């Protein structure tokens, strides 16, 4: 039996290809580093792996201490494939024989090592190595806009999605160009460690106004966070951590160190919405997750999300969504 006091360990293996784009590694893994500091329930343990112990990077800085590609991955591992630069600062356009051999070694390793239960996430052009290994066959996926044609060629049965920050299809996760890897990793952190942790990390990285993978709307958990005002962040962090609590303006004002009047004024100035609007948005977002992932009836969803009744949930929901929650539940559970 698992001890609830013990953190859940998620082993993360970062594949470092030749000409590695440093932002593809530094951005997403910085998300994991900060997530480990923000909470103790989940621990991301990171190992950098590749065919060569030293790799040249996109900006000419060598990456050293890369561990060999392991023979077998532990159950529940997450493999992250970073992208490569076409024209690094130092090496020019031509790939060396060693670089070509290293890329072939990564492709062969992916074919051997990735099995059911292992999640594979690609950043930027890392999707091309995954595609060449057959990892994206029959999957929804994306990549950097400059690599779309190559991805379609390498994975002809894949459903390549344009204009997406990231795409999740079962155990395959792919992201668009470079900084979109941060968005993908925030999504992974939110699933593993909770939205409050992901929001805290996003706040640290100052990447609040980012979209969901295939959602044309701003993520409700990050909406209204495109500011640096500490008083409002304290109030928002409290609401995100427990949307169902009875959050009055007075209660949030006490918690954030402002008067109710000043908090209301600052909230409107910094977020473009009222305190009540923000609380209701978080509750609707929580209800949306319960509709997608549970069989609770509408009344139970409403109560657990902090609404007094299903009627109140529907009223708040209809201010933000065109279709009612009952219709949304069917669509969400079908993965639409």
H-E order: EHEEHEHEHEEEHHHHHHHHH
Major β-sheet profile: 6 strands, mixed
Q: What integer is the average pLDDT?
A: 89
Q: Helix- and strand-based class?
A: alpha/beta
Number of strands: 8
Low-pLDDT regions: none
What topology, given as strand order, has the largest sheet?
A: 2-1-3-4-8-7
- Spatial extent as radius of gyration: 22 Å
Give the N-to-C terminal Cα separation: 36 Å
**Separate helix tally:** 13
Number of domains: 2
* CATH fold group of the largest domain: Rossmann fold
Approximately what portion of the residues adopt beta-strand conformation? 5-15%
Oligomer: single chain
- Report the CATH superfamily of the largest domain: Class I glutamine amidotransferase (GATase) domain
Q: What is the level 1 CATH name of the largest domain? A: Alpha Beta
Globally, the shape reads elongated
Work out the helicity level: 40-55%
CATH architecture title of the largest domain: 3-Layer(aba) Sandwich
Describe this structure in words.
Helix 1 crosses helix 6, helix 10 packs across helix 11 and helix 11 crosses helix 12. Helices cover 45% and strands 11% of the residues. With 336 residues, the chain is an alpha/beta fold. It has two domains: 188 residues, Class I glutamine amidotransferase (GATase) domain (Rossmann fold), CATH 3.40.50.880; 110 residues, Orthogonal Bundle (Arc Repressor Mutant, subunit A). The longest helix has 19 residues. 42% of the residues are buried. The protein contains 13 helices and eight strands. The strands form two sheets. Strands 2-1-3-4-8-7 form a six-stranded mixed beta sheet, with helices on both faces. Strands 5-6 form a two-stranded parallel sheet. Pfam families: DJ-1_PfpI (PF01965), HTH_18 (PF12833).
